[in-house]
Design brief:
alpha+beta; PH-domain like; seven-stranded antiparallel β-sheet; two-stranded antiparallel ribbon; about 50% helix
């Protein structure tokens, strides 16, 4: 059996560790945990952005209140030429708004009755609609104008504006802090999304989350598993998997034809051929299963423990190892033909062999 390296360490859920590997940064969470981590980041960023937007709107309203107070008492403070011009524009817009409000109030106060009253209500409704639209347009111009006046007059101190100005400044500061945090969290979510795709692709290609296993091994090292192999001093088994040992075997047969003629011998029914046989041998190789047992990978060697046959190959004796869809082929020094180990997770076994070889002193 293989050690379960696909589940996160016990303390990773609250603050997952990120490990730098050759393939990129890897978060020590399984794929499901990483997906949930990405979703949590995205929700957090959305929440921060929404709160920041609300605070920005609140700050804008507060600045407009400050500007309105300053505009109504323009004679009590000294304004720059630019601010004075803005203030006059704001006063003019406020006057138009007051006129529209007065007309709307007058229309609502009229009492229309009977048939003629119905026509009057229709006319009043049209007028109300027109005035309301005009009023909305005036407010859309006045609101930012008042906020601009307030922002450009920070030196003006009045009891009625100082408190509101302080609230506006605080709201903007909180909004900026939330926006910065949202940007940071969004960046982390984007990086985690890239990692999630990379690891999902690896899972499809390798059959296991290879980037995670590499990060786990770099951080914690391999986990020991029970093994049927008698281990040497300092040796640790990290993978035990059901396997079948197989080797290529050669079979030779002759193929070809003969030339000549034959004649019967007496009445025996046996014919005697005169001539020659022109043939040639053909060699055919076939993979023959020798025994079933367990494939064992330790930090020192590759071994097979079978019912009647066993093998043990130190990593230093390996020339190279090939991985197939259903097994491994181990090529050894001094051997022309490899040993084949038919097993369910050959790529994982090869991954562990490569990892141990990479840890060996050079």
């Amino acid at each position: 059996m293989a050690a379960d390296l696909t589940s996160a360490p016990p303390d990773a859920a609250s603050s997952p560790q990120v490990v730098d590997t050759e393939g990129g940064p890897v978060t020590l969470l399984d794929l499901a945990g990483l997906g949930a981590h990405v979703k949590a980041h995205e929700l957090e960023a959305d929440k921060d952005t929404e709160q920041a937007t609300s605070l920005r709107a609140l700050a804008e309203d507060l600045w407009a209140q400050v500007g309105s107070a300053l505009a109504t008492k323009v004679s009590q403070w000294s304004a720059s030429a630019q601010v004075a011009e803005l203030t006059q524009q704001a006063i003019a817009l406020s006057g138009k708004l007051a006129t529209d409000d007065s007309e709307l109030e007058s229309i609502h106060a009229k009492d229309h009755g009977g048939i003629s009253g119905l026509a009057g209500k229709l006319g009043g409704w049209n007028e109300t609609r027109k005035l309301s639209s005009e009023r909305a347009e005036l407010e859309s111009q006045l609101h930012p104008l008042l906020a601009q006046i307030a922002r450009q007059s920070p030196q003006v101190s009045m009891p009625e504006v100082d408190s509101i100005r302080g609230q506006a400044v605080a709201a903007e500061a909180q909004a900026q802090e939330l926006e910065q945090h949202a940007a940071s969290v969004s960046t982390a979510a984007s990086a985690n999304n890239e990692e999630l795709k990379r690891r999902t692709d690896a899972l499809g290609e390798m059959g296991f989350d290879a980037p995670y296993v590499a990060a786990y091994l770099k951080t914690y090292g391999p986990q020991d598993v029970d093994s049927p192999l008698i281990l040497k001093r300092g040796e640790r088994a990290c993978l035990v998997a059901p396997a079948t040992l197989a080797r290529n075997q050669t079979r030779r047969q002759w193929v070809g034809g003969s030339q000549g003629f034959s004649f019967p011998i007496g009445h025996t029914g046996i014919r005697y051929r005169v001539g020659s046989f022109h043939g040639h041998p053909i060699e055919q190789q076939s993979l023959t299963k020798l025994d079933s047992g367990s494939l064992v990978i330790t930090n020192q060697r590759l071994a097979f423990i079978g019912q009647v046959k066993s093998t043990s190959v130190p990593f230093v004796k390996l020339l190279h190892v090939e991985s197939y869809s259903d097994g491994l082929a181990a090529f050894l020094e001094g051997r022309e033909n490899p040993d084949f180990y038919l097993t369910a997770q050959p790529k994982y076994a090869l991954f562990m062999i490569n990892w141990f070889l990479s840890q060996a002193p050079h």
